[in-house]
Amino acid sequence: MTTGSPDLPATVEVGMAAVTFDDLLAVARHGAPVRLGDDALAAIDRARAVVDELAQAPTPAYGISTGFGALATRHIPTEMRAQLQRSLVRSHAAGSGPEVEREVVRALMLLRLSTLATGHTGVRRETAELLAGLLAHGITPVVREYGSLGCSGDLAPLSHCALALMGEGEVRDASGTPLPAAEALAAAGLTPVELAAKEGLALINGTDGMLGMLVLAIADLRMLLKTADIAAAMSVEGQLATDRVFAPELQAIRPHPGQAASAANLVALLAGSGVVASHRGPDCNRVQDAYSLRCSPQVQGAARDTVEHAAMVAGRELDSAVDNPVVLAEEGRVESNGNFHGAPVAYVLDFLAIVTADVASISERRTDRFLDKARNHGLPPFLADDPGVDSGHMIAQYTQAAIVSELKRLAVPASVDSIPSSAMQEDHVSMGWSAARKLRRSVDGLTRVVAIEVLTAARALDLRRPLEPAAATGAVVDLLRSSGIEGPGPDRYLSPEIEATVELVASGAVLSAAESVIGELR
Known about the structure:
This protein folds into two domains: 12-206, Fumarase C, Chain B, domain 1, CATH 1.10.275.10; 214-518, Fumarase C, Chain A, domain 2 (Up-down Bundle), CATH 1.20.200.10. The chain contains 20 helices and nine strands. The longest helix is centred in the C-terminal third of the chain and has 32 residues, at 432-463. The chain is mostly helical. Helix 3 (81-92) packs across helix 6 and helix 15 runs antiparallel to helix 16. Strands 4-6-7 form a three-stranded antiparallel β-sheet. The chain has helices spanning 21-28, 38-56, 81-92, 102-116, 125-136, 155-165, 181-187, 199-204, 208-238, 248-251, 257-270, 274-277, 291-294, 296-318, 343-371, 394-410, 432-463, 471-482, 495-506, 509-518; strands at residues 12-14, 34-36, 96-99, 140-141, 144-146, 170-172, 178-180, 326-328, 333-335. This is Histidine ammonia-lyase.
């Protein structure tokens, strides 16, 4: 999903400071190259010195001179440690299924590089620089859908990326052409690395895939929730509902910040509406509107607050060094830990899937009210041109309903479904990768549901003419019409109009149209 053309950095420097949301969006979604800062290179060198010293010591050190997971009790002799690293990466690159999206792979590569740059992993600088080189040249390893349990991090997805650093496996170049990794590296003037002690483990033991997908979803949902407010305003207007319930003094009685923001957006979007003004007088006998109209700020505002909670968790995770074992360079030691467990990320990924389903559900209910002659206050059944001959938007709502039903299934949490692995050494896992994968499908579904509400509401507002909509909602109607999506009339092939509206929502064009009139929404 693309969220317009944000003002993002052209090049991202990865240093000791945490990668920001904007850094990740720039690299993952917009192809920005990266470089390692001098502070990061110095930290990497300090940590590597500790690893080299421990590699020469007679005492076994996990991840440096031992096997991994349930095989950690075996001490590996010096002459076999390069083979140990190769074997680790090759065996763990065991993904299966469809390819993961390019933006997700670039996100997880950037986040792994960010952890390497903290100086807590013990890789050599040439290994970190090669990972930066792949990002800079647009070389994207092929990562498969299935293989991560979210603990010890996203092992299989990250292993496919580490494999490319060795000059093995499959990648896609900057143009998207698939080719062997060795050929892509050679074409870019990059030299594969032979992994040294600790490096294989350092490259694959992190929550980077699930975290990358969380940050991307947060960016998309922030935009989509504003767009859902636009859709709700169009529905309130088109269904002759009142805007008085959105008054700030009513929201202040229940001071949730997201609710206040959503209600303020509705007030701004409906300002100056001739449709709303037409039924504001003493002749209006409507006592109160249906929940799907009246409670839009409560639902969409609560979703906002959930997104911001998830953003807080993501920010903490971006500020983390997730590896096991970790190098404590100042103390000259390497210690095992459990920071690779994806539970903090998995929980909020599941939480976002729940609110995504519910925002889609209320959007579908608002759309359905437009189509029912008993509830749409004077509009034709199904907004059809000649009801009976024409079906109007009857089946557009079916499409919404099918998606909402799917979103409810996707809202079932993945993080409660731990399954043991590695001969019971890894006996409790997060399933955070699975939570992230289903959230991406949820975000796509919400985009489509909101788009159908916008499309239907625009048709209804045209049917209300000569009453004039508000300037902001009218700008959205104008955007659809100028994009080739026709207004009311006899039935026509509807799917292309739905897909065109989905693109206008996903690209941020619907949001931009409204904001061009009333300024930035909250």
